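Risk register update: the risk of archive-format incompatibility is retired. Evidence:
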Amino acid sequence: MDSPSPGGGELERLMQLLARIPGLGPRSARRAALHLMRKREALLVPLAEALTRAAANVRRCGVCGNLDSTDPCAICRDARRDTSILCVVEDVADLWALERAGAYRGRYHVLGGTLSALDGVNPDDLAIPSLLARARSPEVHEVILATNATVEGQTTAHYIADRLIGNEVKVTALAHGMPMGGELDYLDDGTLGWAIKSRHPVS
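Archived output:
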C-alpha cells in the first residue's frame, strides 16, 4: 500500500484527485503532481484556469448529448451537416473518435452508456427515449448504430433496432474493421473511416 505523501494536505488532495483520472494510479498521480509543481507558472496555473473555465462553461448539448460551451453544440448548429442521418454512439469519446476519422458528416446522438442488467442500467437511464423521438422525425432517413463491439454495446444496438421497427427509417450498423471487444475511441482513423463507409442494414 502506498504511504501518505509528505507534501502536505493540498498536495495530497491534488494527488488523490489526479489518481481518479482513468489511466492514472497513485504513483502516476504523484509524478503528475510533482511535474505540475515544478512547472507551476507554465503548466499548473494555466491548467487550473482552464479547469475552472471548463467547469463553469462546458455543458452537455440538449440535442445530441455532446460536450460543448454552447447548447446546441457546434455540430448540431452546423448547417452543412446532413440532417437525414443520425449516428448513435455510447459516449462523447466515441463521437470525437468518429469526428477525427473525418468520414461522417451527419448528426449524432450520445446514449450516455449501454444497457446492463448486471449494473441495473435500463433504457430510461440512457438517452434512448430521446433517440426514438428524434428518429421519428420526417427528416431522418437513416440511423447508424455505432455502439462498441462489446456484449453490452451489441445488446443496446439490438434493443434500439427492435424499437425502430415500423418506423420509416433505415437502420444500419458499423461493419468492416470493428473487432469484437473493440471500442471506437481506441481504433485508428482509417479503421473508423472504413467502418462508417461499410455500414450494413440491421436485420
